[in-house]
Amino acid sequence: MSQYFSNNTNSVNAAINVSHSYIIADDRSQILTWLSPLDPRLRHQDIRGRRVGNVGEWLLQTEGFESWCTGSEGGDSDNTVLFCYGDPGAGKTYIRYKE
Amino acid sequence: MERKGQLLTGRDVSSLVVDSLCDQARKRNLAVACFYFDFANQKEQFPTNMLGALLKQVVGGLAEVPEEIAQTYEDQGKVIGGRGPQLGDIVKMLQITSSKKPTFICVDALDECLARYRVKVLDSLNQVLQKCPGTRIFITGRPHVQPEIAKSLPGRVRSVPITPRRDDIIGYIRARLDEDTTPDAMDNSLEAEIIEKIPDNISEMYV
Questions:
Q1: Taking the CB of residue B68, how many other CB atoms lie within 10 A of it?
Q2: Region of poorest pLDDT, from B11-20, B29-38, B71-80, B160-169
């Protein structure tokens, strides 16, 4: 008899553990959705899919980019922010004009 | 093909940087978060949504949701009707996650963010940097937002122009010449002349 109860208790505990982990997983996705409804990773996948070859990869090898990436912390001019500026339309318009 | 005729856009640069950082994140213990501003979605890209989306990516990469974040959610998300996170809460939560591991934040086309939102976004990023100096922020945009960035993130900004480089332009022209439907009209000396002269003229346009 006690063996019977013990077995049942174990399976009940197992069931509780399973449902507990479901709650945690569920909470996690709810928390992520609560933080923001936007999903920039999807936009990133879209943009990288339309990128042409390795155009622009030189930027990753510049001293400016590398020191931003690996630079030391703190200081008055710590360069923790890298701002790349340009007029994205210019190249496109010029090339089309020449066609 | 939509992309025919384009050389290099700010979005290309941003997505290259994000991919490069994600590669590094696999080797080093980094967090990477990106955001692409867009004229078409200006209304939904307000500061809490934008910074919340950065935090969401960082938290999504952690094995567990940090206790402080779960607690903030318990306190606010589950009140009757639910309440979204406040900007101050998001900044605090970003400070917590960024102090746990080095965080790289990439923001594309800041000029496409509404001006009144831009101030709050930059100020929030500055608060994260103040608390967690190991954080790195990459921003692209048109030159006119540069003074705002320099003002909101004083002493932290290095600016680099994005202009097509000669080898980018040559690679681009070669690719287009390969698509030529009348190759007989082209001989080697004409091709050499095109590749020699066009990049020079384009470079002048960007000076």
A1: 14
A2: B160-169
Which residue, among B3, B4, B9, would best test binding to A if mutated, counting the most A CBs under 10 Å from its CB?
B9
* Domain residue ranges in chain B: 10-152, 166-206
ipTM of the complex: 0.80
B35 phi, psi to nearest 5 deg = -150, 130
**Cα of B103 vs its chain's centroid, Å:** 14
- What whole-number distance in Å separates Cα of residue A3 and Cα of residue A5? 5
Pairwise CB contact (< 8 Å): B133 & A40: no
- Tens digit of pLDDT for each residue in A60-98? 888 889 889 887 544 445 789 999 998 655 433 333 333
Measured between beta carbons, the chain A residues lying within 8 angstroms of B9 are 88, 91-92
Maximal C-alpha separation, chain B:
75
Span B10-152: which CATH code?
Answer: 3.40.50.300
* Long-range CB contacts (within 8 A, 24+) of B42-45: B42/B112, B42/B113, B42/B114, B44/A37, B44/A38, B45/A38, B45/B113, B45/B114, B45/B117
Spans of all domains in chain A = 1-52
Task: Report yes or no: B140 and B14 within 8 Å, Cβ to Cβ.
Answer: yes
Q: What is the mean predicted confidence (pLDDT) over B158-181?
A: 75
Q: What is the pTM for the complete model shown? A: 0.77
pLDDT above 90 covers a percentage of chain B that reads 61
